[in-house]
Amino acid sequence: MTNLIGQSLGRYHILEQLGEGGMATVYKAYDTRLETDVAVKVIRTENLTMATMERALKRFEREAKALARLTHPNIVKVTDFGEREDKPYLVMIYLPGGTLKQRLGKPIPWQEAAHLLLPIARALDFAHRQNMIHRDVKPSNILITADGEPMLTDFGIAKILDLEETADLTGTGMGIGTPEYMAPEQWTGKTSVFSDQYALGVVLYEMLTGRKPYSADTPAAILLKQATEPLPRPSQFTRDLPEKMEKLLLKVLARNPEDRYGSMAEFAKALESALSGQQPPASEQTPKRKVSAPRPKMEDKSRPGPVEAVKVHDTQATVDQQWKDSAPKKELAGLKLSRTDLPIVLLFVGGVILIGIIYLIGALVSNSNLNMPPTFTPTPGIGSFTESDGVTMMFVPAGEFSMGSDSGSDVEKPIHSVTLDAYFIDKYEVTNAAYKRCVDAGGCEPPKQSSSYTRTAYYSNPEFDEYPIIYVDWNMANAYCEWRGARLPTEAEWEKAARGLDERTYPWGNTFDGTKLNFCDKNCSFDWADKNVDDGYADTAPVGSYQDGVSPYGLFDMAGNVWEWVADWYDSDYYINSPASNPLGPSSGQSRVLRGGSWGFYVNDVRSAGRGWVTPDYFEFYIGFRCARGTSP
Question: What is the pLDDT of residue 64?
């Protein structure tokens, strides 16, 4: 890369080079307009071909705008971006205090290490809730302010020039991460929020022991060690390390993502617990959700039973035994099992047999018209009907509407005409009470957590019966709708029901009005709160609370309250080739679409054309759903 010292990038005069890596070169520069020092990160593009340059620059602009919206006290703020001669650059605040990497080389007291990384864990949790993954967490990307405050930088840099939808650029090997901090699944291209968690665990391990868990001369050798060698026990390098910190490292550095903490928030709580001397969070002692393919419907890991009892027992084992169990296991009968797994397998088989008996009894009972889903008897053309279960559905007539937006993000483009058959869709988001009826009937799993963001007791608490169900993944939402004899709405059905035929921006019109939806307001603790609105809720609101925010077809909470699962797989380019009649979305994918925004997100997310996407196994305090069905039984 050409040395830029002494040159100017727009209003930024380059003063000196601060550092250089495989993806970018960082300079100290002087902002001639604001008369202050800044950091300018110039992205390396010399390895790109002409064929990929245009797409790379478009990706850069999209990601740069997303980074500029990422505002958190412990994330280095992106203040500007630009491009000169095919060299894109980001402008950030300048922090002269150095990096965490400069402090490493010998063990750091565990309390100091935990205190230093706790704000970084919270910053990553914040970003994950914005559907943003760092991809390259490492000590050199953690800056230290003059006051000793840690700041995370280079957020998303690894993604800017990694065109996931193409093979030609990713084949160059750019932007996959730093080998010694990469999670095992990253080597196969499966980056997720759990990869960030693993990387931060490696940083913590290095701080506590003065060494990285796996080191080698080549990336391939590091991968081989990860796959074949057990995690070196940190207490052999740091004798006074508490057992609780060893257990924390064992969990966060697990090979399989599903064995780590369920979220970065849980990891942060575990650090807090270790510092306070309290017991680990209850969620640390229960099986975690999977992050790979959607699991089979019969795989019910949330119900108490023999399998769960064994899992809880395992967490009480000694650290020595846990370290032995983390070693590579021999394959028995084609399954990756060790001899210590056999009691678990036997109990699991017994649990499956027991569950099978329960389902058989349930089937026999259902034939006696007990616990039957509500009967569907609407008459097409009628504006609404109420099922016997008490759920009201609204009628949306057949016809054409305009889907998408040319004023939003690229994934909403282009606007295109879509013709849909008539259908019914829930008037309200599915409530706690409605979902519990399915759980009680044996048709649904309980939500992954019974709390909400601010309420300890939320699900199964009569006070919140008419609030939207949360902490359900896509498969759980789909199972509920099927139990009712319905289905999740397609993305096109959801958007038509939300905005009608006149391409309105919001369900009520084209002007944002914070009083017409449950949206992050001055009661909300998030940085992006709209401080001018007070709706009385610092969390979810009862469904149907915002009468002035109703959609053209009489649906409530199509903006805000909770994001809603829809049926479609996500593809950023799907709109370009979408069928003109009854589109069902891509035939496959890695993420499912979310619609409608939530009480805790940006104004841009609650627009009727706005799209979100996460993996089907994802669940959070801001995700719910509603159901739809055709006009025939």
Answer: 77
